[in-house]
Each structure stands twice: as structure tokens, then as C-alpha cells.
Design brief:
Order of helices and strands: EEEEEEEEHEHHHHHHHHE
Number of domains: 2
Mean pLDDT: 86
CATH class of the largest domain: Mainly Beta
Largest sheet: 10 strands, mixed
CATH topology of the largest domain: Jelly Rolls
Low-confidence stretches: 1-15, 160-164
Radius of gyration: 18 Å
Helix content: 40-55%
Number of strands: 10
Number of helices: 9
Length: 268
């Protein structure tokens, strides 16, 4: 990567909806989308921290409707941060999504905070991009890409970054229960009972530990399950039912709210 300084810029006319061609990889606590994209997203926010690095071209974010755009070669968008993303490339990029309650997610919060989009250290962003794109060129196998993603996240977290504290064991059990039952209807009451807490106590614990509502986290897991199914060959209607959405329209609305684009804009 060349010229890694952050540059503010103004919007340049009307951009088309974003399109993206690439590959997706998923694991417990995170996911990776790597490939080529261009265009502009709608306003959106998501449960996971988002780490973005560019191998070719650059990208920009803004967090206010009339605010300036800021150009990056590597950036972090913290959990639940409303933003727009724009590429006037096409640019080749990797998007790493890391759940903030995971060990890696808490290390990211410890290093970068959780309040605003920030530039990733230039050297770390270059190293992470190199790890990911070399793995893509040499293998593309899921296990190799997930390993490369884990190494890239560790690089971006910093070798000395550690979570401030361990996750509450009751929440750890709750997250395990949710992931094990994500294909079935799940209520807050169900999970609270599974970890022997009242609904109000569990709701407070969940928000305090994750910074997110129970419903937002559940939707985040379901949308990733749907994307994984679609990338494996299912239709979006089939993917919606696989992930527990009422129908494909519900999936589309959720995808646009979390990623700012229609799910059909993703092309494997």
C-alpha cells in the first residue's frame, strides 16, 4: 500500500449502489469478505467490529449525512457505528467482521476504542492485506483463509493488545446456547432460563458485556448464516428460511440495515 495518510474529501456527485464480487469465509465469532467492489452503500450499522484493508485502490467512510468523506487504505468501524462506505474504484479489499464479545473483538476494543471510525496503523494494515491476499492467491480453501484471517486480525490487534477483562461466564454459556440453537426460534426468555437468570437480569448483563441488544446480536448471527448458505449455493429465499427469517423480504431488509446494500449485490 502506498500513501496511507487519512484524507478528508467531499462527496463527488451521485454514486451507484455498491456491487461486490469475491469470496466469503465464516467462523465462530467472525467472518471475512475478500474481493473487488465499487459504489456507495446506504447508511447502516452492524453488531461486529469491521476491519477493512485495501490491496488495490482506496475507500472512504463518513458518519454524518452532510459530513466530509475520509479516505483510507486501512480502517476500523466499531460495533454499532452508523456509517456510509464508498469506493470509486473498482478496488480490491478485505473486510473482516469480528464480534466485539469475542476475545479478538475485545482486544480490538482495547486498542482502538468503540466510539468512532479510526485509521489502522499503516504497517499493520499492509501486513494484514499481504497475509490475506497471498492466502487467497495460493489456496482459497476455507481452513487456510480462516487461518490467514486469524493471523491478520492478530496483526491488526497488536501483539500486546489484550481484552480488559474476561467475558462473564454466564454470558459465555448464553452465547454457546444461542449459536447451538440459531436455526430455531429463540427468545430472550429461553436464553435467560438456560443460564439461570431472570429476563431483566440477563438483558442487563447482555447489554453491559456486549454493548448490543439481544435482538441485534441474534439478527447478526442469522444474517451471517444466511449469507453463508447463499455463498454455498442456496437461493436467497432458501437462505432466509435456513437462517430463521420469515421470508426473503425480511432477510433483504435486515441485510440493507446492517450492510447498506441488497444481499443480491454480493456475487461469489
Amino acid at each position: 500500500m502506498q500513501g496511507d495518510s487519512v484524507q478528508p474529501s467531499v462527496g463527488r456527485g451521485r454514486f451507484s449502489a455498491i456491487t461486490s464480487t469475491g469470496r466469503g469465509y465464516f467462523w465462530q465469532g467472525g467472518s471475512l469478505w475478500i474481493g473487488e467492489g465499487q459504489g456507495r452503500t446506504q447508511w447502516h450499522e452492524h453488531h461486529a467490529h469491521q476491519l477493512v484493508v485495501a490491496l488495490k485502490g482506496s475507500f472512504r467512510f463518513r458518519t454524518e449525512a452532510e459530513g466530509v468523506w475520509t479516505d483510507y487504505r486501512g480502517a476500523i468501524v466499531p460495533s454499532e457505528c452508523t456509517h456510509q462506505f464508498e469506493v470509486d474504484g473498482p478496488a480490491v479489499m478485505a473486510h473482516l467482521f469480528v464480534e466485539p464479545e469475542s476475545s479478538a473483538g475485545r482486544a480490538i476494543t482495547a486498542r482502538f476504542g468503540s466510539n468512532a471510525i479510526a485509521e489502522l496503523p499503516a504497517a499493520s494494515a499492509r501486513a494484514a492485506a499481504r497475509l490475506l491476499f497471498e492466502a487467497l492467491q495460493s489456496s482459497q480453501l476455507a481452513k487456510d483463509m480462516v487461518e490467514a484471517a486469524s493471523l491478520a486480525i492478530a496483526e491488526l490487534c497488536g501483539t500486546t493488545a489484550r481484552p480488559d477483562k474476561d467475558l462473564d461466564p454466564r454470558l459465555s454459556r448464553a452465547l454457546d446456547y444461542i449459536r447451538s440453537n440459531i436455526r430455531n426460534p429463540i427468545t430472550l426468555s429461553d436464553v435467560a432460563s438456560a443460564v439461570a437468570l431472570s429476563e431483566s437480569r440477563f438483558r442487563h448483563l447482555f447489554v453491559a458485556e456486549t454493548g448490543s441488544s439481544f435482538r441485534a446480536y441474534l439478527l447478526w448471527l442469522r444474517i451471517n448464516l444466511a449469507i453463508e448458505a447463499a455463498m454455498s449455493g442456496a437461493s436467497w429465499t432458501e437462505a432466509a428460511h435456513e437462517a430463521g427469517f420469515a421470508d426473503s423480504a425480511h432477510l433483504t431488509r435486515t441485510h440493507k440495515r446492517m450492510f447498506g446494500i441488497e444481499p443480491t449485490a454480493l456475487r461469489p
